[in-house]
Design goal:
7-stranded mixed β-sheet; binds zinc ion; 14% strand; 218 residues
Amino acid sequence: MLFKKHITKLFLFFILINLFLFIPIILVQGDNENKDKITFTFAPKGKAHKAHNETTKRPLWQRIETKHTVIQYENLKDLKKFEGKIDYSQDKFFFKGLFFSSTSNDPKKAVNKKVEALFERVQEILDMRTKINKIIINIYPNKNRLDEIYYHITGTKCRIRSWYIYESNTIYINASDVHEGILAHEMAHAIIDHYFSIRPPRVTAEILARYVDEHVHF
Ligand SMILES: [Zn+2]
């Protein structure tokens, strides 16, 4: 509780400072799957604006464009790892065997199917189906690389497993530490933040996003 109070105070402090100085606030939304999730919103230091250009500075990215997302990854090994961790498909119960056998040889096709199925499931749970720009999903190979990019964006140490940045409409994911619930949670943030004409309060969005990741399979 004490920790929460401090966070609230810090948050209010940042808001006030930003209001007075007219500095645009870029919010990083962090998610940790633990019970006592570190859930926070803060205004990173000056490096935050780099989030917008970060993807264009990486010529090594490979991309898959799906109906609702742009998935960026460094090599096929990472993509395969990511594909193996996302346990979701629309035809899960009836066609499970068929689905996996027909796509297992082509990780790009498999990822496309799974990510699209998951996106539609998140829309369904939230009952929010407005059209939004394609969500960018950046897949990093391991925790070190995820921590590195987090530090690059925020100037602080990474204590979370994934996050979403509204301003660049980008999800940051670690291929070595992800599952369908984590990805669904971050997709939910993207959908929620674009659904209302005014973005809902951080706490409200977090409650909805958690509801989504807990109900992916129900
Ligand atoms: Zn969240």
